[in-house]
Amino acid sequence: MQVDTSATPDWAQRFKQLAEQAKDSRLKAFYAQGAISGDTPLIDVPFVALDFETTGLNAQEDAILTIGLVPFSLKRIYCNGSAHWVVNPNRDLNEESVVIHGITDSDVKNAPQLDEILEQVLQALAGKVVVVHYKNIERQFFNQALLNTIGEGIEFPVVDTLDIEWAIQHEQCKGWLNWLKRKKPASVRLGQSRERYGLPAYQPHHALTDALATAELLQAQIQYNLSENATISLILQ
C-alpha cells in the first residue's frame, strides 16, 4: 500500500510559519498548538475525524451546512469529545441537497454563523491530525469558508481514508494473475469500504455519523494493513 505523500510539507515547520503570518487570533492560536512530527508512531497520534455536509460540491459557490467531529486514537474513540454544529449558510437551500442530507431551511434559519462557532471548531482540531474521507471537500470548503468569513484561509494536515483505501485496492489488483482475471479495484466509497472490514452500516450524510464512520474505518485500515508502530508519515498529507 502506497499513499501519495509527495506533496506533504513538514507540517511542524509549516505551522510555525503560519502562526507568525495569521492575523485572526483564533487562527493564530490554532497554528500555535503545533503539528505532529512525521516520525510519530501511529499508536501515539491524536486524531480527529472531521466531516462537513454542504449545500453542494463546489467550494467556490457552495457553503458548509453542518460540521461533525470525533476525536480518537488507534485504540479508542472519544465519543464524549465529539461535536456537531449546524451552520447558517446565508442562502436558500436547493432541493437536490435537501434530498441528500435532509437539512432544511428551517433547520438553518436560526443556526449560528460560522464565525460564531469558529473558535470552538479550531480548538477541537488543534494539535490533532484531521482524518477525512475525501480530503478535497473538508480542505477546500474550510479554506474557502474562512476566506469568506475572516479574510484568511486555513491549512492543516490530513489523513484521507479514501486515499488509503484506493491504494489498498490497487495493490490488491497487481500481478499477472489478477490481470488475467481482469480483477478491478473495488469501490472506495465510505459505506463500501467499511463493509469490507466488517464494520456496521450507518445512515450516510449526517456529519457526526460520517465522522464516526471515518474514524472507525481508519482504525480498521491500520489494523489490517499497517503496523501501529509505523510512522504517520506513511499516510500524512
UniProtKB/TrEMBL annotation:
Please name the GO terms of the biological process aspect recorded for this protein, alphabetically: DNA replication
Keywords (A to Z) from UniProt = Exonuclease, Hydrolase, Nuclease
Where does the Exonuclease domain start and stop, copy by copy?
A: 46-227
Q: Which Gene Ontology terms cover its molecular function?
A: 3'-5' exonuclease activity; DNA binding; DNA-directed DNA polymerase activity
**Catalyzed reactions:** DNA(n) + a 2'-deoxyribonucleoside 5'-triphosphate = DNA(n+1) + diphosphate
Cellular component terms (Gene Ontology): cytosol
Instruction: Name the source's superkingdom.
Output: Bacteria
Among InterPro entries, the record links this protein to: DnaQ (IPR006054), Ribonucl_H (IPR013520), RNaseH-like_sf (IPR012337), RNaseH_sf (IPR036397)
Write the Enzyme Commission number(s) for this entry.
2.7.7.7
Indicate what this protein is called per its UniProt record: DNA-directed DNA polymerase
